[in-house]
Amino acid sequence: MNYFRATFYDQYTRLTREQIEAKLTPTPRPISASPTSEALAGETLKLVLDDGPVLEYTFDKETLTLKENSGEAVTAPYRARELGQIVLFTHLIPGSVRGYNVILDRKTNLVTVFEVWFCGFEHDLREVWRHYMFGYVETEDPAPASRHSLTNRIEGLGTYWKDDNGVEMLYFFPSIFWSSFVELSHPRGGITLTAPSDYIKINDKYYIYSRVEQEFSGTFTLEVIDLFTVRHMGVRLGFNLNDDLDYQVYCGTGEVTGRSTSLAPLADYGTKIPEDERLTAQLDPSVKGMRPHYRPRFLHLDYTQEQVDHIIATNSKIFEGRNIMSSFHTMETTDYMAGMRFILRFDDGPAWEYEIVDAEHLKWRVEGESEWHEEIYQAFEPAKDLIAFSHICTGSKPLRCLTHAIDFSNALVTCVDAQMGNGRKPWEVGHKAIFGVLEMEGGPVPPAVKRHGFTTDLVGKAYAWIYSDFMQSVHVYSTPESYSWTIMLPNGAGGWMWSSPCLYVKLRDDVYLMSWTEDACNGMQGVIILNTNIMHDAGFGFGMSDFEGDHALSVSTIGAHARPLAGFDILKYFEKKRK
Fold it and tell me: Got the DSSP string for 554-565?
């Protein structure tokens, strides 16, 4: 499987302001795959915003006239859509790189307005920035006291959508300011993407959801979701992989796929972002449109092959030192294998002989070799008679790290064979799973046919992982080949997110192996064995670490307590796609 063809790995052009302005001239009207609304034609609206200008609109069928703070009128094309009592209209402002998206509740006359603009992020001008404002339509009646508001009411929600433009998507909302999504209809989709997001409550029926595909295309998406009928309408603004303008309105129908349980206090309604030192450092109130952000390309060095080789030669830390996944809840290591000698024989692959010296040292060699290789290792027993252990192959180039899961009760073994460099970056780890049997004198008879194998059992599951009092995350296993993680805020609400390609292996009915690679991030690889009976995992990390500024080759142990958080009925969408 060539993951690198997936949209997750797409590289986008750094457009200049001049290029962006040219693509917005003449002022475009958003496209639509189905008829849109003319409900505003002939109307005049005066929008009074708490944190922004007064916007005065006059509408024809296809164009509108706008005055900002009683300034000079401009005329621009627009489109509108209706969803029950809610109207959404969108337009750009001629001669600029900005525009407005207005969500109007016709029943209450309350509005939420998203001002959007290109060129807000100097490193990537194609990225759309946004600033939402709450207000109302001025009428002869007194100004309403209520407003739309931020909310956590849909934190944890999962949905499936099929839109009028043919797009099919899965959405996951395990955070109060981030989201993840899967492009089911895209032939190169299937790897989960994440984006900083907004969640706004109109009422108990209607919600507003927005996101910007930060670190990817920079595209802005804004939707109104009706959870009574599970319908939505939206607008999309940005530039696609070919740098063509993608400005469209759409609508669709969907299904609620489930929920991951919110861990926030029951009396926390999400009307404001929780206080947190990390958030305070990111949210500069003087910068309009600033959002929580996670930009891995600015956090980690893009090592050259020469730098990787030098670090491996001079600063390899094998089961020593701390890392970002250091845990207070790592399982105790085991000496279960001390004194054993066995062969791990893999189908259509290698056969390795092992001599386990003690709880921390082993010898290994390829079957038939005369010389042994000595390595440090660590081992866990995450389930009875099932041992996970890991070691590097010193001197191999590219550097190799083998993680084995041996079931001594039935002689089955899975190896996650990882190496430094994945064909895309020399510092990103590549990995694969291979299956085979244990051969050991006095051990169980190796089965002729039965093997461990890849599984979809975990797809749709959600778990909270508690590494320590200070580090917790929520994993959503959102596709058969990828997952997302959410870093939790101090109050238990979901915070920053990222995603990775991964693989899932079933070892027993209640024990699973997962291996992931943090591509387009820090490049690290991890393997965990999850025992669903005891809700605990044990595993290993391998890769280039820059934890606390120390650039090192790291092999480390990881582990956490788990809590099941319900989940999502989503496997059927992937089975449908593959038929």
Answer: EEEEE--EEEEE
Residues sharing a CB contact under 8 Å with residue 158, sequence separation 6 or more, in sequence order: 170, 171, 172, 173, 256, 257, 258, 259, 260, 568, 570
Q: Whole-angstrom Cα distance, residue 164 to residue 187?
A: 18
**76-115: burial string, b at 16+ Cβ within 10 Å, e else:** bbbbbbbbbebbbbbbbbeeebbbbbbbbbeebbbbbbbb
Q: What is the pLDDT along the chain (579 residues), one digit of tens a residue?
A: 567 889 999 999 999 999 999 999 999 999 999 999 999 999 999 999 998 999 999 999 999 999 999 999 999 999 999 999 999 999 999 999 999 999 999 999 999 999 999 999 999 999 999 999 999 999 999 999 999 999 999 999 999 999 999 999 999 999 999 999 999 999 999 899 999 999 999 999 999 999 999 999 999 999 999 999 999 999 999 999 999 999 999 999 999 999 999 999 999 999 998 888 999 999 998 999 999 999 998 899 999 999 999 999 999 999 996 655 566 899 999 999 999 999 999 998 899 999 999 999 999 999 999 999 999 999 999 999 999 999 999 999 999 999 999 999 999 999 999 999 999 999 999 999 999 999 999 999 999 999 999 999 999 999 999 998 889 999 999 999 999 999 999 999 999 999 999 999 999 999 999 999 999 999 999 999 999 999 999 999 999 998 888 899 999 999 999 999 999 999 999 986 654
- Pair of tokens at residue 332: 């105790």
Domain range 341-451, CATH architecture:
Beta Barrel (2.40)
Contact status, residue 532 vs residue 481, Cβ threshold 8 Å: no
User: What are 364's strand-pairing partners?
Assistant: 354, 373
Beta-carbon contacts of residue 198 (< 8 Å; ≥ 6 apart): 130, 132, 150, 177, 208, 209, 210, 211
Domain at 305-329+454-578: CATH architecture: Beta Barrel (2.40)
pTM of this prediction exceeds 0.90: yes
All structural domains of the chain with their residue ranges: 13-293, 305-329+454-578, 341-451
Burial code of 28-56, b = ≥16 C-beta within 10 A, e = fewer?
bbbebeeebbeebeeeebebebeebbebb
